[in-house]
# Entry
Amino acid sequence: MGKLILGESDKQLLKQLVEVEKLLIVPEAHKLDLSRGAIVVPCADGDQMDDLFDDIRSLAIESGKKPRPHFLTEHGGAMVLSPEWHDPDRPGRARRLTEDLVDAAKMKDIYTVLLFCHAPCGKATACKVDIEASIRHLMLAKRVVKQLDPQFQVRCFVHIDWHDEFTGNGHFKETYFISAETWDKRNLRRTQPGI
Ligand SMILES: [Zn+2]
# Structure
């Protein structure tokens, strides 16, 4: 498959979510409790990890904390934890990842959990999951993690590689925060116009 380029339909929806609906926003460090570090659950994608790591590191430094990211990587990232996630080639991943999350929290005394999906994602593409469905899986994953331990503070993020061959911007990349509450409200408005 090699390096992936963001597909046109996903790009249009992401632009809508960032520029118009403003549901995907650049994260504010002071709103995250990174005092003891963070368990970070991203996709293992090596084309994106360097940028993602820089963003996590910058958030910690901005909030005045020493960066202490504890990475639990899976192909597909936190989407794997969604009860609706289905990858026939790699069963049993959710159970292993939840066990690792609980283990990591106890072992390192870290209860801030940063869940990620991203685009373009090879695993999402292989499983025919577009960015809208990816975010839905991310939100379902958040519920799962919160149920594992009431101490967990869970925040959701979408990492985007905005490749734009026409403007010459190259691979501009960004990490965006997305609130479960605003995402739910958006979907409620879409299914029940008038609310
Ligand atoms: Zn991926």
